[in-house]
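Hi V.,

You were right to ask for the full record rather than a summary. Here it is.
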Amino acid sequence: MSGSEVTLGHIEAAAAALTGVAQHTPVDHASYLSDLLGVPTYMKLENLQRTGSFKLRGATYRLSRLTDEEKARGVVAASAGNHAQGVAFAAQQLGIDATIFMPLGAPVPKLLATKGYGATVVTDGATVEECLALAAEHAKRTGAMMIHPFDHADVIAGQGTIGLEILKDVPDVETVIVPIGGGGLIAGMAVALKEAGARAGRDIKVIGVQAAATAAFPASLAAGHPVTIERHSTIADGIAVVRPGDVTFPLVQRYVDDVVTVEEDDLAKAVLTVLERTKLVVEPAGAAPVAAILGGHIRPTGPTVVLLSGGNIDPLLMQRIIAHGLVASGRYMTLRIPLPDRPGQLARVADILAEVSANVIEVVHTRHDMGLTINDAVLEVSVETRGPNHQGEVLEALRLAGLSPDVISS
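Predicted structure:
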């Protein structure tokens, strides 16, 4: 099956094959996003899927279509985590030996989960691209079947089943917002949504979201063919792909209405916002559609569904993202305040902060900082604030009191 042959019929066949394996994940109304957009907005909770992401769908459908002889040879895949878990789980269910190449430094929870599903895990290579090359060499050497994370029609069709579920749960949907890495997820969903919409006589808009730090699709769409870009660091590792797939690209080119990019601060704010407002854990790649809304990049005109594509996040990364998200949202600020070295100065600053309702989180007071004279001290104080306007009030109050605060982080 080539990319051009991925049709609504193939996606419906994938949905039937996934019955009893992939869960029909819930759709929840998101009131805070509805208020921002001015239209009814819903979240498709694929972060609650088995293995914690949508990748289970494509992996299971791909493996289910292997011949008995191919299954006997085993499978090999490369992934930073979600595809790894999807392939490992599907292989375990189907009794197939699986070898997964994961990059050095892959998130420990994803690595342990992949091993827990019975796969042989090889950690090697600095990037997913290097792991893909190693997996291809393994396939050539051993005869194992290579299971690409996105660039295969069966994988695309499996991911497209999410679109069918959205149509069932939100039949009047007009806009669907989807994260993009290599394009397998959005390609399958766009085929399902566009073809089913056309069958009903209406057009459903499909909008993709990439992390600006590693966004291959805007450049490729502008060029008219897949191009390779330079990889830059992003917290959204699940969608950090440097080149669209040869199978996925023409489908995205044909069916997807727009692709927007989001910055790291918006990704961090999105993870924090979803956690606070819905009590759901979502990884940065999975929160990309929410980041696009928070960043003001999308203005839909009718019922809208945002896909939370995965929830597999390292707790240590979550800790850093929460801290960064608080700063990016204007809710946490660290100040450096020079003070004369005499009694009562620390209490004076504390009183000023209390008067403007800034909650002190941490204080460091020292006389030994470089550049200080014998009569000087410096105070570093971290405070919880209610947003950018409140931060301005805090700074103004300190300056009116004759102090000279420098913002270290805000």
